[in-house]
Amino acid sequence: MQTACDGCGVVAQYKSKTLNPRWLEQFDLYMYDDQTNQLEITVFDHDVSGRDDFMGRSVTCTQGPI
User: What is the domain extent for residue 26?
Assistant: First the structure.
Protein backbone atom coordinates (compact mmCIF):
# COMPACT_ATOMS: atom_id res chain seq x y z
CA MET A 1 0.00 0.00 0.00
CA GLN A 2 1.30 3.44 -0.88
CA THR A 3 0.13 6.80 0.39
CA ALA A 4 0.96 10.14 -1.13
CA CYS A 5 0.19 13.73 -0.38
CA ASP A 6 1.57 16.41 -2.74
CA GLY A 7 4.96 14.83 -3.33
CA CYS A 8 5.51 13.20 0.05
CA GLY A 9 4.84 9.50 0.23
CA VAL A 10 5.24 6.36 2.29
CA VAL A 11 5.01 2.67 1.48
CA ALA A 12 3.54 0.16 3.93
CA GLN A 13 4.93 -3.34 4.35
CA TYR A 14 3.44 -6.01 2.15
CA LYS A 15 1.44 -8.82 3.74
CA SER A 16 2.19 -12.29 2.40
CA LYS A 17 -0.12 -15.27 2.04
CA THR A 18 -3.36 -13.54 3.02
CA LEU A 19 -6.51 -12.54 1.18
CA ASN A 20 -7.50 -10.16 4.00
CA PRO A 21 -4.44 -8.04 4.81
CA ARG A 22 -4.51 -5.66 7.79
CA TRP A 23 -2.07 -2.79 8.02
CA LEU A 24 -1.61 -1.83 11.64
CA GLU A 25 0.97 0.80 10.77
CA GLN A 26 1.00 4.48 11.59
CA PHE A 27 2.46 7.25 9.46
CA ASP A 28 2.92 10.96 10.07
CA LEU A 29 2.21 13.07 7.00
CA TYR A 30 2.77 16.78 7.34
CA MET A 31 0.57 19.03 5.23
CA TYR A 32 1.15 22.73 4.73
CA ASP A 33 -1.15 25.52 3.53
CA ASP A 34 0.54 25.76 0.12
CA GLN A 35 -0.02 22.05 -0.65
CA THR A 36 -3.01 20.31 -2.13
CA ASN A 37 -5.70 19.12 0.28
CA GLN A 38 -5.93 15.59 -1.14
CA LEU A 39 -4.59 12.33 0.25
CA GLU A 40 -4.14 9.49 -2.24
CA ILE A 41 -3.96 5.83 -1.20
CA THR A 42 -2.91 3.29 -3.85
CA VAL A 43 -2.94 -0.49 -3.39
CA PHE A 44 -0.83 -3.00 -5.36
CA ASP A 45 -0.38 -6.74 -5.00
CA HIS A 46 3.19 -7.95 -4.48
CA ASP A 47 4.92 -10.07 -7.10
CA VAL A 48 8.27 -11.74 -6.41
CA SER A 49 9.19 -11.50 -10.08
CA GLY A 50 7.85 -8.91 -12.47
CA ARG A 51 5.83 -5.81 -11.72
CA ASP A 52 3.36 -5.47 -8.86
CA ASP A 53 -0.25 -5.32 -10.10
CA PHE A 54 -2.40 -2.24 -9.46
CA MET A 55 -5.47 -3.13 -7.37
CA GLY A 56 -7.09 0.20 -6.58
CA ARG A 57 -6.79 3.85 -5.60
CA SER A 58 -8.67 6.19 -3.30
CA VAL A 59 -8.38 9.97 -3.13
CA THR A 60 -9.89 11.88 -0.22
CA CYS A 61 -10.06 15.55 0.68
CA THR A 62 -8.22 16.48 3.88
CA GLN A 63 -9.41 20.06 4.20
CA GLY A 64 -10.04 20.94 7.82
CA PRO A 65 -9.30 18.78 10.88
CA ILE A 66 -8.96 15.05 10.33
Answer: 2-61
